[in-house]
Each structure stands twice: as structure tokens, then as C-alpha cells.
Backbone:
């Protein structure tokens, strides 16, 4: 009987979104390390500064393609998802990830130019990429959770994402070095990566269960606290302001994090750190460990603070840690700086949770996708800006970009502070009068 119960539980787990997230992120973390080292190998004959410029230029073009191409496909997939095909925003991008991994494998095996990965980035973007995939996952999570516990459930999924990335990063450096006389470095790693992406696609297509929402539930609009009564028109105006503030905070904080991470990968390869592939994997693992600390921090703080305060805590954590990253000269200083960002992953999933509570269920998918698209548009500005700033300060202060990132994170705290102030304000007399007027008409 116990064995049967265990089998039922295990069978139930494979139908949930968490195994999908784990498989996909394991594959992606392996792919990221492989791509970085392949790019480095192709620039090995240049001087260190020229290598840094060549690598940063490659990643600037590659990431701009990845950020720009998914905009229209992600919107289309979001609309398809909101019309009932909830798997589409998840399954289609997984196909793109699989194709991209196979392309890098061919670059290694056939010694193709690294610029082939630009074409692979176009294919990944055409499938919607992360811009469609992650909102699709978050939409499934939102549909399967109650409003009161939604941010906690989202953070749990983020935790699984981070743990998978942690494990993948720890293994990636060692697996990258495995090769035989007939194949080169990275072939085994990319083969495993391809298998993981294939398994995630199979799980999403055949095993993933999606909660069906009735039309009555779709018409309901779960709102933030302090808005449980009153006319819908008043809620709409109040929610619109909150949505704008949440979007503003997400843009500023997302630009801060994205710009810093954009440079961090190539920053650790140059002097004075000068990391090898194994150390790069450990550094990536330290970044993914933040998913665990952020989840535990969210669980601990949630008992005594609101979601808005949680966001502020995460922003302060990242701003502090990334500022000290600009002063890093040794490996132990790098890990100390990373330890200061232990709550840095709290803000964005909590912002998504608050956004999902401002709209009806039928608009949840498109709202979260629009947020992801807005972050992509922001990336079109901060990726080249951070790249060129890093190149121009490479000789005198290469960590200057991290100082700029810290400033952006601090600026992102202002819209969240306004939301905190708005939530603390009592309902105005004008709103009360409007409420009474509507009640009299009824």
C-alpha cells in the first residue's frame, strides 16, 4: 500500500510544472557555460583586452537578437494561451531551445563559425524564447494557486529553477572538459544538454497537466488588499496606477540585474580573476544559489512584512552586493559580494504576483507576457549601453558598470515605495462619495 501511494505521488509530480522547469534549466545552465567557453576558444589568439572586446561584442549582438526577436511571437503565443491553449507558450519555446542547443553542438563538431549562433538565436527568438516560456510557466502557476499564496508558489517555482541552475553550473565546468580523441571539448556537455531539452519538451507536450478555469472564474478579478469592496470602476483606476508603478519598478530593477549579469560572465575571465572553465561553473552556481536564499528569505520575511516590503528588501540586497562587485579583485571577494545579493531574486517574482492580482484571469497570461516584453525592450537599451561602457572603462575601472547597476536598483525602489505609500492611505472622501453614489443607483 505504501509503495502504491509512493508511485501515485511520483506519477502526480511528473504532471506538474516543476519537473519541466528543472529539466529546462539544467539544460540551459549547461548551454550557457558551453557557449561562453566556445566563444572564448574562438578568441584565444587575441590579446586579453582584444579578447574581452571580441567576446563582449559577440554577446551584445547575440543577446540583442535573443531579446528582440521574441517580441511578436511571444505576444501571439500569449493570446493563444489566454484562449485556452495554455501549453503553447511553453511547448513552442522549448522547441527553440532544443534547436539552439543542436546548433551549438554542430558548431563544435563541424568547426563552424561561431556566427552560426546568431542564426540559432533568431530561431530561438522566433519560437518566443524565454520571453514566452517564463510568462507561460508563471501563468500556469497563477491558474493553479490562490491569490493569497500565489507569490509563495511563484517563489517555489523560482527556487526549483535556481536549484537546477546551481546543479547544472557546478557540473558544467567538469563535463565540458570531457572528450575523446575523436571529439572536442564541449561535445559531451552539449549532448547532455540536448537530451535534457528533449526530455523537457516531451514532458511539456505529453505529461504536463493544465488546470481548466471556468468562465465565471475568468470574469473574476482578484485584487490587492484594501480593495475588497467598492465599485469596479474605482478598482480599475486604482489598479491601473499600481500596474504602471509595478512596470516601472520592474524595468529599472530588471535593467539593473540584466546589465550587471551581461558583463559579469566575461568580467571574471579577465585579470585579476582570470577564471578557468571550472571556476566559471562555480561562479555561475553561486549566482543560482541566490534562488535558494531568496526563497528561504521570502518564507521567513513573509510572516512579518508585506509583498511590497519584500520587494524593497530584495532590491536593497542586490544594490549592495553589486556595488561591492565593482571593487572585486580576488575570488574570495567575488563570493563575498555575491553573498550580499542573497535576496536579489525576490523582487521580480513578487512583482509578477502583484500584477497577476490586478487583472482578471483571462488577462493574466497577456499581462505577464507584456511585462516580459517590456523588459526585453529595456534590454535593447541597456545591453549595448553596458557593453560599450564596459569596453571604454576596461583600462581604468572595469567594475564601473556594476556601480551604475547599483544606482539603477536604488532608483527601482522609488515606484515600489509609492505603492507602499498608496496602500497605507485611507480611502479618500471622493472615492467614498462615488461608492455611495453607485450604491444608491443600485
Residues:
Amino acid at each position: 500500500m505504501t509503495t502504491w501511494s509512493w508511485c501515485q505521488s511520483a506519477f502526480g509530480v511528473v504532471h506538474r510544472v516543476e519537473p519541466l522547469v528543472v529539466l529546462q534549466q539544467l539544460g540551459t545552465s549547461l548551454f550557457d557555460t558551453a557557449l561562453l567557453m566556445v566563444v572564448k576558444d574562438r578568441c584565444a589568439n587575441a590579446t586579453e583586452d582584444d579578447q574581452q572586446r571580441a567576446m563582449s561584442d559577440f554577446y551584445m549582438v547575440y543577446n540583442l537578437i535573443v531579446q528582440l526577436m521574441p517580441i511578436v511571437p511571444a505576444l501571439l503565443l500569449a493570446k493563444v494561451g489566454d484562449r485556452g491553449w495554455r501549453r503553447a507558450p511553453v511547448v513552442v519555446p522549448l522547441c527553440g531551445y532544443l534547436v539552439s542547443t543542436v546548433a551549438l553542438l554542430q558548431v563544435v563538431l563541424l568547426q563552424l563559425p561561431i556566427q552560426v549562433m546568431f542564426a540559432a538565436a533568431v530561431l530561438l527568438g522566433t519560437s518566443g524564447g524565454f520571453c514566452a516560456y517564463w510568462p507561460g510557466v508563471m501563468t500556469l502557476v497563477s491558474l493553479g494557486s490562490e491569490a493569497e499564496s500565489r507569490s509563495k508558489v511563484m517563489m517555489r517555482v523560482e527556487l526549483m529553477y535556481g536549484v537546477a541552475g546551481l546543479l547544472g553550473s557546478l557540473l558544467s565546468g567538469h563535463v565540458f572538459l570531457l572528450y575523446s580523441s575523436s571529439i572536442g571539448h564541449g561535445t559531451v556537455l552539449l549532448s547532455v544538454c540536448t537530451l535534457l531539452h528533449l526530455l523537457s519538451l516531451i514532458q511539456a507536450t505529453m505529461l504536463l497537466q493544465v488546470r481548466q478555469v471556468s468562465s465565471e472564474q475568468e470574469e473574476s478579478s482578484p485584487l490587492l488588499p484594501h480593495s475588497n469592496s467598492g465599485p469596479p470602476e474605482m478598482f480599475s483606476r486604482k489598479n491601473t496606477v499600481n500596474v504602471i508603478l509595478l512596470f516601472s519598478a520592474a524595468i529599472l530593477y530588471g535593467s539593473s540585474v540584466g546589465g550587471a549579469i551581461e558583463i559579469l560572465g566575461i568580467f571574471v575571465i579577465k585579470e585579476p580573476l582570470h577564471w578557468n572553465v571550472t571556476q566559471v561553473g562555480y561562479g555561475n552556481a553561486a549566482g543560482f544559489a541566490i534562488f535558494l536564499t531568496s526563497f528561504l528569505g521570502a518564507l521567513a520575511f513573509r510572516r512579518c512584512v508585506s509583498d511590497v516590503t519584500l520587494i524593497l528588501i530584495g532590491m536593497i540586497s542586490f544594490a549592495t552586493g553589486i556595488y561591492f562587485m565593482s571593487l572585486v579583485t580576488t575570488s574570495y571577494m567575488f563570493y563575498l559580494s555575491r553573498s550580499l545579493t542573497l535576496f536579489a531574486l525576490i523582487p521580480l517574482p513578487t512583482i509578477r504576483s502583484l500584477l497577476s492580482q490586478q487583472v482578471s484571469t483571462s488577462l493574466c497570461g497577456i499581462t505577464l507576457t507584456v511585462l516580459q516584453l517590456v523588459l526585453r525592450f529595456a534590454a535593447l537599451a541597456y545591453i549595448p549601453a553596458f557593453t560599450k561602457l564596459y569596453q571604454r572603462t576596461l583600462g581604468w575601472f572595469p567594475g564601473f558598470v556594476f556601480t551604475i547597476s547599483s544606482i539603477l536598483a536604488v532608483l527601482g525602489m522609488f515606484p515600489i515605495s509609492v505603492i507602499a505609500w498608496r496602500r497605507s492611505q485611507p480611502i479618500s472622501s471622493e472615492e467614498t462619495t462615488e461608492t455611495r453614489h453607485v450604491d444608491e443607483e443600485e
